[in-house]
């Protein structure tokens, strides 16, 4: 195997596939990047137990030659060393392997030798059927996951809740995540004519959001145990979480006693300030109270240290004008941060019922937060 | 005590004095910021066992009113809460205390109450005699310390070596730091007519470098147990380290077998690359060898993993043309990073003698690094 590659381009590819590589793995071959050189491209692969990232570098990018292939072949190179050395090399990089898996990396007067591993020992990529499932804009897909995945659980005791539930039906995709105390649900219209219900690890979707930030369109496949996202030059395979996701439809309240409309950003800033003392509590308690009929008082109290309170004018209020509820301030902040709309509508069902948060003008997105008990 | 202060200005002052506050201190009052309000200014004080930072905010800055004093007085406010809340307040900040040390912080519709502490319980500032010792440009002073303090020891077993030694004589100031394996020494001309020899904790000088980065001129005082640095609005008091600093003059070799001249930046980059495998060794071993009479080979080797080598053309060589030495690559990088000059001269006394590094054209600055044994 032998090729010469443009420095920047190789650096970028290495840093992309490294996102798939865990530094803690009992399989030493998975600490490496697999490099496959064929006549048309150089392919880099990095993987861990959850995801596989495959990056393809073609011979030319935007009319510029970036790769020159001397001899095809494949090898696995320790990811940390490859990444560190390539970052520090001044110009084009010449990589060559011999039959003993010894790799020579040269750039100008600088010569490095690293021991590689046999590419045949690297786990095989899962097979995917190439019947395209659906095409989707990357911005839309990334937003869909950003608005839901934060609500998933971090507790490994209930593995299904650590993932994000995706339900494909005839004309829409519904994405839900919950940790039992809060829930986020987002729908998008999508014609695909296939039904499926899968649970994807949150960690995979976090990598997706970073990897595909500047892609145009993404192809989405589902195979037996994998979901696959593919842009022009990157493919991300994520394993699925086994199990049955709880039915969350019944959790969403149909009625409310009080509905208030607020400026999203102003409310977020108020909650952020109230969290100052809230962090002294186990549940980051922040209190919301309706005062004088048209104002919302946001307050928190840590009796030993101090208290903070402010009142904000509501944009509108419907239903009962009496309300006092305690919520986890950090959940509220997470919920408000990922709303793009200027206004939010909050539905209250009483001090012991979950609140429902919806951006005004976007019925496809809703969030629930359960109240906390105060003692 | 009561005053109204401009948001940005208060924020900046809090973040400056917080640098002096340790989050781990058995004295809870030292976790607070002391605020003293007199008729002309608001003064903030933060301190730990090593340093005290005093910041003075005058009523006007650049012709703009930033403070309005309602009532003079003093209080100690928990630093973390004060800092967090002030960052998040939208406009001018109104601070008021009552006789029970309860503090009210108000900005627009936002009201916070925090319990304060009695300012009389805060440790007193050390007395300094106001006979000005010396005036010095802040850039010059900060550079002087940056070029030396990194070489001090991190090992608390020899406390004097964790500090930086400052020797004031009739016409110059000599600053030295060493950890027994490397040494950095810098001199500047300075007329002051007083002799003194003190050891200043490295941590204090690190804070100094941050605090006085954009000051013009600094006044420097020395009292019994303190060195004091004072700009227009900030005063930094640092305690001194007790003890006798070793005589380092004898360590500096007077003769050398080989002297080579190199491009500083190119040499630094080469050492950086060689450190790739050097980190596998206990001492970050990097080898320097003269080859072909006019080239320097930089190499490192971790037999299990790989090796890296490169050759650089030397700008000049004097003396013996045979040399092979092993050095701690991270020490070499530290030494080269703080040299501003384009070229360095390196003096070698043999493979077991320390090397001497001097910027070409700057005889006031020198560094020593001891070789490491290779097995």
Instruction: Summarize the largest interface: chains and residue counts.
Output: A-B, 31 and 31 residues
- Mean pLDDT of chain A, to the nearest integer, reads 92
Helicity level of chain A, as a percent range? 10-25%
From the spread of the alpha carbons, the general shape of chain A counts as elongated
Low-confidence stretches of chain A: none
Strand proportion of chain A: 35-45%
| Biggest pleated sheet of chain A | 9 strands, antiparallel
* Strands in their spatial order, largest beta sheet of chain A: 16-13-14-15-28-27-26-20-24
Report how far apart the termini of chain A are: 69 Å
CATH T-level topology of the largest domain in chain A? DNA Polymerase III, Chain A, domain 2
Question: What would CATH call the class of the largest domain in chain A?
Answer: Alpha Beta
Structural class by SSE content of chain A: alpha+beta
C-alpha-based Rg of chain A, rounded: 25 Å
């Amino acid at each position: 195997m032998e090729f010469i590659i443009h420095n920047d381009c190789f650096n970028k590819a290495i840093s992309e596939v490294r996102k798939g590589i865990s530094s803690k793995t009992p399989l030493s071959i998975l600490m490496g990047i697999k490099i496959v050189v064929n006549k048309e491209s150089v392919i880099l692969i990095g993987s861990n137990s959850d995801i596989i990232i495959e990056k393809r570098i073609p011979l030319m990018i935007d009319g510029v030659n970036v790769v020159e292939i001397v001899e095809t072949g494949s090898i696995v190179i320790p990811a940390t060393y490859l990444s560190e050395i390539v970052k520090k090399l001044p110009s084009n990089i010449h990589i060559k392997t011999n039959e003993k898996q010894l790799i020579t990396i040269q750039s100008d007067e600088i010569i490095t030798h690293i021991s590689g591993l046999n590419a045949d020992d690297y786990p095989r990529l899962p097979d995917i059927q190439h019947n395209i499932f659906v095409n989707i804009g990357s911005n839309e897909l990334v937003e869909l996951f950003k608005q839901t995945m934060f609500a998933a659980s971090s507790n490994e005791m209930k593995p299904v809740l650590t993932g994000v539930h995706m339900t494909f039906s005839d004309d829409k995709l519904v994405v839900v995540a919950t940790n039992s105390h809060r829930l986020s649900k987002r729908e998008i219209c999508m014609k695909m004519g296939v039904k499926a219900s899968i649970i994807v690890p949150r960690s995979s979707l976090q990598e997706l959001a970073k990897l595909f930030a500047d892609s145009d369109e993404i192809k989405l496949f589902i195979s037996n145990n994998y979901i696959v996202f593919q842009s022009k030059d990157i493919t991300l395979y994520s394993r699925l979480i086994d199990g049955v996701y709880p039915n969350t439809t019944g959790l969403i309240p149909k009625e409310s006693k009080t509905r208030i409309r607020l400026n999203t950003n102003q409310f977020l800033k108020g909650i952020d300030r109230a969290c100052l003392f809230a962090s002294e509590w186990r549940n980051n308690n922040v209190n919301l109270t309706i005062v004088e009929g048209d104002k919302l008082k946001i307050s928190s109290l840590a009796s030993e240290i101090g208290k903070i309170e402010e009142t904000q004018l509501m944009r509108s209020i419907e239903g009962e004008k009496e309300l006092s509820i305690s919520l986890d301030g950090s959940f509220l902040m997470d919920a408000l941060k990922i709303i793009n709309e200027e206004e939010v509508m909050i539905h209250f069902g009483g001090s012991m019922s979950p609140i429902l948060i919806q951006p005004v003008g976007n019925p496809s997105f809703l969030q629930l937060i359960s109240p906390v008990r105060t003692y």
